[in-house]
Each structure stands twice: as C-alpha cells, then as structure tokens.
Amino acid sequence: MDVKVARSKILSSFKMHGYSLRSEASKYLTEVLSPLKRSDFETWLEKIIESVEKQPLESSALDKDVIESAVQEINQDGEEEDDKVFNLIDAYSLPRFIYSSDRKKFLPNTQTKPSLHGTAQDKADIFRDRYTILKQRTMRHELFMPATVASANQNASKFELKTLEYLLGSSVALENVIILGMLTQLKEGKYWLEDPTGVVELDMEKALFHTGLYTESCFVLAEGDYDDGVLKVTALGFPPPEPSTVTRAHFGNINFFGGPSPTCVAASEKLKKIEQENQDAMFVFLSDVWLDQPKVMAKLRILFGGYAEVPPTLFVLCGNFCSKPYGTNYFKTMKGLFQDLANLIAEFQSLVENSRFVFVPGPQDPGPGNILPRPKIPENITHALKEKVPFSLFATNPCRIQYCTQEIIIMREDIVNKMCRNCIHLPSDSESVPTHFVKTLQAQAHFCPLPLHVRPVYWTYDNALRIYPLPDLIICADKYDPYNIENNNCLVFNPGSFPRNEFSFKVYWPSSREVEDCKINE
Hints:
- It is a single chain.
- The chain is of the alpha/beta class and about 525 residues long.
- It has 15 helices and 25 strands.
- The protein has helices spanning about 5-15, 25-35, 40-55, 65-80, 120-140, 150, 165-170, 245-250, 270-275, 295-305, 330-345, 350-355, 380-390, 415-420, 435-445; strands at about 20, 60, 85-90, 95-100, 105-110, 160, 175-185, 190-195, 200-205, 210, 215, 220-225, 230-235, 285, 315-320, 355-360, 390-395, 400-405, 405-410, 425, 475, 485, 490-495, 505-510, 515-520.
- Strands 3-18-19-21-23-22 form a 6-stranded mixed sheet, covered by helices on one side. It has a 6-stranded mixed sheet with strand order 17-16-15-14-24-25. The chain has a 5-stranded mixed beta barrel with strand order 7-8-9-13-12.
- β14, α10 (about 295-305) and β15 (about 315-320) form a beta-alpha-beta unit.
- It is globular.
C-alpha cells in the first residue's frame, strides 16, 4: 500500500476511536503496516487499536512506546495461538470490565483483585452493573435506537426508553411509557420497579406477560400508564438479547470470556482451521455422577469401556458426587470415592492418555458454604485421582472452557425449579418451561436473576455469572429434564441427572456444533 495512503488511513482510524498519534508513533506504524496488502493492513490496524484500548493510558495522544507495545503483544499472540486450543478458565480469574456510558465502550477494571467478602458498595454495584449492561444493549436494539431525522419517517415503530426519574418528576399522567428496571418487593405482596434514578409502585393486575420466567430481582421492560405515583403495567417483557456477533461488531475483539489470549479467539483463523479439521473431537457431559452408588459406577464402567476404542476429547462430570451427605465422615468418604473412580478410569489406558476429565462441583459437594461461584473440590480429596489420571482438571462452578474458537460455559445448579418457585407469573404452557428459562437467561445476561437471599452470590464475583456476550454453548446441568434449545446463535442444553434420567447424557461435536442425546441401556 502507498505510504501516504497508509498514513492517512492510520491517522483517521485512530481519530475515529478518540486517539491522536504523535509524529514518531505514526511514522513507526506506517513503516510496519505499509508493506502489507490492503486486507491484511486493515486487520492488523484493527488489532493494534484494540490492543491500545486495553492499555492503561494517561493521555489520548499516543507515543511510539504505546504503539510498539501493542504490535509486540499481537506478534506474541500469533506465535502462541497453537497452545490455546483448550483452556479451562475458573470463575475467580475472569477479566473485569466496566461500561463507560460517556465513551460508549467497556474499559478494563484495573483495580486490585477483590476481596471474597465485599463491602456494601459491592452489593449495590451488582445490580447497577447488570442494569448498565442491559441498558446499553437495549439502546442499541433497532426498536429503541434513537431515530435520526432522516429515518424518523421510515421507522415510526421505534420506542423511547424513559427513566423512573422522568416519571417521578412529572406532574401529569403519562401514557404508554416504557421503563427498564428491576422488579423488587419493598413491601410484602406489592411489587415495585427500580432503576438508578428512583423506584415506583407497579399495578400488574392487567399486565400481559411476554415469554420468560419473571422473578424478583430480574430486569424487565415495563410498558404502561403512570398516574398518581403508580405505574399501571399493560405489558411486561425482557430486554432484547443479541447474538455475540452483534456485540463483537460493536465492541471489537475484546476478550470478555477470559483465558490467556488478549483478544477474542473467535477471530483466529488458525484455531478455526484446527477446529474444522478435527472432526472426531467430541465432548461427553454427565451430571449428578453419584460415586457412592454401585449402579452409577457400573454404568460408568460401561461408558468408559464403550469409548475406550475412540477416546473423546473431553469428559465433563458434574456433581453432586454423592447422593447424600455423610456427616462427619463426608471428607473421608469423598476421598475414598474419588480413589475408586481413579482406579476405574485407570483400567482404560486409552482414556487416561487421550481424554481430559473436567470435574465441576455441585451444590452439595464439599466447599465453603453454598454460595456462587463455588471453588473447586479441595485437593486433599482429589489428590489420588490426579496421580492416576494426569489429565484430570477440577473446575469452579461455574467454569468456562475455550476450545479453539468456541466459548463454552458450564453451570451446575438446580436453577429451573428455583426460578419457577419464585415466579411472579407462571407460564400457562408448562411443557415449554425450558424455552421460557433459556430466553430469560439470555435476556438477563446472567445465570441467577434471583434475589440474593434465594441464591447467594459473592458480591465481588458476580461477574463470573454473567453471560455477555453470549457464548457458543451453555451447559445448565440441572436435575430438571434434559433439553436442547438454540437461540440467538447460542446453544443451551441440560444433560439431566445421570441416575435419575435412566443414565442419559449428552455428547457435543464441536466441528459440526451438534448435540447428541445418549443413554446407557440396561
């Protein structure tokens, strides 16, 4: 590319992102990028800008050092890409971002690692951050995007989102207003809508509920008429979700998901090629693997024996790993059970050598209280298994897996029943509860849109339960019946309880992104 054209494009691209380049920086970057073809030039320029945005900058005027650092980071990323085919990411090491309403972008949170037990401010930030993420996503939706003068006549169906401050400051009755806020119960039996600007009482007697499971502490779009301090709701819906492609088109290749890569792995051509070529790769998912039940162990022997000739890439075994608590002998019992499992897996050498085993703790497995995210099972229990099965990995709950370009989130929690029990309006079509649940999950961009007293969460690690941007695959391991649902280019499935559902499990094929329902026959 011509040097003058390259320099002009570089300066204009940085200017669009709010940066200016000092003369040495622009000269250096022009020398680096001008020899490239046009397509490669634009790709590299985009990556460099994304790398710059993640650096702690003191000024928008960029020196040569900042640009050199960005170029070196991208070079290292390209060299190490082959090592990033598989990554297990725990809930306590996820990257932290804060949405800046002024700059309309996510900025890295550079604060020190948070304390496990947060302050009152951390508790307030949980709901403020959830609201901010959902609001910026909703405002980008075509129905809520502010209409320009040119497009106003073409799209008359746009809606205008109001805040509660607007309602509370009005001295007259308002009709057909739409508010984004959190459902809350300030007084028993009465529901209110809350946002950062205020709170208003709701009258939902005549409300039409759209698809979803509406619980206290979930965020909703409430449409209705406001009069005399009460919002009479005519329709209640969820903030519209968006596919990950839309999110990334807006925010670039920021790595929200976690892992060693500084950018989102979905853009990696090398990893995409590896993923497509490895058509035999398969992941096996089981939940409620009760190691204290002889029948479960017998079925596991059949399962491992069946896969011994063609070892899966990955076995994901979710808890609970005991069918019942064992009191004071619980830790000793669990240690013995994992020893038995180690002996069983060791019988199949092909699995030991070729398959990874990931263990996700359940709600009743050993840990410091039933609060999310749960830490991995203590090492003094799992030591014997790690010795005999070197590729065994013990994960937090929830945890994340990056396989090539795919992002996978695994959660072991009986959340469907909890949400149904706490619904303010149960869907009439009970057969499609999983559909309502999946749409709620994606709309809320969170695994547990429930009050903290119903499902406790560590305030400072609430980001571990976020589902934004949407990953490629979500596994909600639940004792509820198995299901597979795809929505917004995100596949969600529940393998079901292994012993309760006739020893059924799920197999996922990453190359084709298909799920297979499997069962061990008697």
